[in-house]
Amino acid sequence: MAATVKHLNYSTRRATYGSEAYDLSYLGDAAVEKRLPGRVRQPKPLVRKRAQEREQAKTRLRVRQQQNISPFAIAGFIAVAVFAVVLLMSYVQLTRASDDVVQLKSDLSNLKTQEAVLMAQYESKFDLTTIEEQFAAKGAMVKPQSDQVFYIDMSGPDDAVVTAKGTQGAGALENIQQFFAAAVEYFK
Predict the structure, then answer these.
(1) Rounded to an integer, what distance in angstroms lies between the CA atom of residue 122 and that of residue 116?
(2) Is the C-alpha dihedral spanning 98, 101, 107, 109 positive or negative?
(3) Dihedral through CA 127, CA 129, CA 130, CA 133, nearest 10?
(4) Are the beta carbons of 177 and 171 closer than 8 angstroms?
(5) Where are the alpha helices (DSSP H) in the chain?
(6) Contact present, 29 and 41 (Cβ < 8 Å)
(7) How do residues 124-155 score in pLDDT, each as one tens digit?
(8) Distance between CA 84 and CA 55 in Å, rounded?
(9) Is the pTM of this model over 0.70?
């Protein structure tokens, strides 16, 4: 078997990779016909040149005269500009209001923490049991004696007595004067 191996002449062969292995154009048409009968390269089709186009005569452009601008268009542009400015100003006011809300919320949270601190200080300063002991020691606060206790009988029917000062006519005049005085004071 070793005797039947042909020695190839590597100097005449070119190394090919990938799809170049099938490209035999470098050998020429005769060599391709010899190696692969029936596969002769087809000649490239001729590309026809375009027929020269006639130059068209230049058309003369007609220019229209400038038209007058409609007053409605001007009014529309002015209205759009005014609305844009009003919208921009409303966004500025909205931004200010939201900033004020954020500031007030932070102030509220600070005040709540201060309230908690102050209430704790207040409760530590004013202990009711200590105050009661101090007043009891001075004698200013003592339990009531049995003769100091009074019971009110609420079993009777409800009745009220209205006492009036002076005459009825004088009270109406005073009421009218008070009404007008209050109205004048309100509008000052």
Answers:
(1) 10
(2) negative
(3) 160
(4) no
(5) 29-35, 71-125, 128-138, 168-187
(6) yes
(7) 887 778 888 888 888 777 777 788 888 888 88
(8) 53
(9) no
